[in-house]
Design goal:
Layout: H1 2-31, H2 52-55, H3 67-77, H4 84-91, H5 95-107, E1 112-115, E2 123-126
Antiparallel strand pairs: 1-2
Helix pairs in contact: 3-4, 4-5
Length: 128
């Protein structure tokens, strides 16, 4: 009778190990733990909140009448490009501010292209 009990005890231990291994794999899969080259779990990093440009250009709300809004309206309504001096005159900004505003618009997801032809000043327009 002792051999039967040992055999049952051995089977129970194997069953418990199998269940524990199954539980461990489920936990790792639910946590989606990524591992490095040697199998060590990688540190979990929290994703950064999305910035305005990454969420999409449609979610950008203009403050009506702002200089940035005037600049965008000047770029968006023309079929031809405008140079920096024209954009500065229409938006009421300085030329340096226009450059910064174009950079900001590009960061918000708008595709603003610059056309350079010969010795003329570069022309900025919204890509179609």
């Amino acid at each position: 009778m002792t051999t039967n009990n040992e055999h049952i005890l051995k089977l129970c231990n194997q069953l418990v190990e199998a269940v524990e291994q199954n539980v461990k794999t489920r936990i790792y899969e639910s946590l989606s733990v990524q591992t490095g080259m040697h199998g060590e779990p990688l540190p979990v990093t929290n994703p950064l909140p999305k910035t305005r440009g990454q969420r999409g250009a449609d979610k950008f709300k203009w403050r009506q009448g702002s200089k940035l809004h005037k600049l965008f309206r000047a770029i968006a309504t023309r079929k031809h490009g405008l140079n920096i001096k024209s954009l500065a005159r229409e938006s009421g900004m300085t030329e340096k501010s226009v450059h910064q505003a174009i950079k900001k618009l590009r960061g918000n997801g708008y595709k603003i292209v610059c056309q350079r032809v010969g010795l003329q000043r570069p022309k900025y327009k919204l890509a179609s």
